[in-house]
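Appendix B, example 12.
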Amino acid sequence: MTDPENAAIAIDYFSDVLCIWAWIAQPRLEELHREYGERVQIRHRFVDIFGNSHEKIPRQWGGEGSFERFADHVAQVASGFEHARVHEDVWRRLRPPSSLQAHLFLKAVEINGGPQGVELMAHGVRQAFFCRGRNIGDLGTLLDIAENNGIERTNLKQAIDDGRAIAALSADMRSAADQGVKGSPTWVLNDGRQVLYGNIGYRILSANIEEMLKHPGNEASWC
């Protein structure tokens, strides 16, 4: 029987692989693992922010020249974070139509490799796009990335072809809607009671986790 006081704290981490703020947040994920180890369980969930990037970016950034303006914005945002390299082609010449292909691929990775596998591959996919200027909207490119990281593409294709990957992605989207997730990245803790959205500092995230470690159980459910 599981001891609730020693159970891992589950965090639903919602992100879109094309979101610059999720790329910037990568070190916070790594620091969580270093500081808390098995006391924290990160459950990677994917949310539709750039599901139709060729509609979203022109609508939000003013039609003609919108991709160039958005590319300038992404580069400027990233310049404030030493670790967040961005390839010069990102959103200028490299314009993936959708993040959903990558999200579907990552759910196939999760089906085959579990939580650790999907976390490592999500980082690899973001790195391929933001640092190396690769088109992660293309399934062939994604399968090449997987193979280069020692993951058998046949198993991934099977999970996509037989519907398991899209079912898992559907569950992520439904969970995002149920929990009121509005953007990327979003951290959901304590069964949805605590929702931390956007470019939050690591200390804020850590403080919420520390509070849950000190007061486990259902103390928040007073009525």
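The chain has a mean pLDDT of 92. The radius of gyration is 18 Å.
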